[in-house]
Design a protein that fits this description.
Vanadium-containing Chloroperoxidase, domain 1
Length: 242
């Protein structure tokens, strides 16, 4: 093995040191976004708790539901479908099992933790106990729904399960075209589920927005821990894409 010159060692060290501020900056940015998301969630929580968002919620739902087209209604139903039982109880463990089978054991463990957003949803629903929208002022699509409205369990579950899956796809899939297609499809699903819950009359806009904010904070924290554990297990610093 050829000896490494002092100049080369110095260059490598300089390159590594230059990467440190960038890594720290990314970490600080993620923490800032997560903190801001939690703060905004707290604001919405307070507004809903004090019943000061009701009129705005009704107005937003009515505006969403003015557009009545068969293709739009069908698209909204498809976006919400994975979040209804029994598939909502089968897909998350299936994702975990699939990652485990292909040898991605650490990723499988964190995908299981991503499912934890369902537990968070249950806790806040128990605290808020907000009634779901009722047929009358708005249209409520027939579906297997129950329980309370705040926050949206669909959105929180999608942010956890599919949000982390999109992160894994982005970091693990090598062919650019395939990676973009997979990540784009998952992000589209996560982006559409919120509007679908309002359009179908199953949730209020504040339920949905609060869930996106809370889910964002959880996802940022989960991916940060995953990156640290992955780096510790492999002994290789995580690159920006990883």
């Amino acid at each position: 093995m050829p000896a490494t010159s002092p100049r080369a060692l110095a260059a490598d060290r300089t390159h590594l040191l230059r990467g440190v501020p960038g890594a720290l900056s990314r970490g600080k940015t993620g923490s800032l976004v997560a903190t801001l998301a939690l703060a905004l969630f707290a604001v919405i929580f307070g507004l809903v708790r004090s019943k000061r968002s009701a009129a705005t919620d009704v107005a937003i739902t009515m505006k969403f539901q003015r557009r009545r087209h068969p293709w739009l209604a069908r698209s909204m139903e498809i976006a919400s479908w994975p979040g209804f039982p029994p598939q909502s109880r089968l897909i998350p463990p299936a994702l975990v099992a699939a990652l485990w089978v292909v040898g991605l054991r650490l990723e499988a463990a964190f995908q299981l933790l991503a499912w934890g957003t369902s537990g968070i949803s249950y806790v806040f629903k128990s605290i808020m106990r907000r009634p779901r929208p009722q047929q009358g002022e708005i249209q409520v699509a027939i579906a297997r729904i129950g329980g309370t409205s705040f926050p949206s369990g669909h959105v929180l579950a999608y942010m956890g399960n599919y949000g982390f899956l999109a992160y894994l796809a982005y970091t693990l899939i090598q062919p650019d075209r395939l990676r973009r297609a997979v990540v784009g499809a998952i992000i589209s699903l996560v982006s559409l589920v919120g509007p679908s819950r309002i359009y179908l009359g199953h949730h209020w806009a504040t339920d949905v927005l609060a869930s996106y904010l809370l889910g964002t904070s959880y996802l940022i924290g989960l991916t940060a821990v995953y990156r640290r554990v992955k780096s510790w297990v492999t002994g290789v610093p995580m690159s920006p894409r990883r």
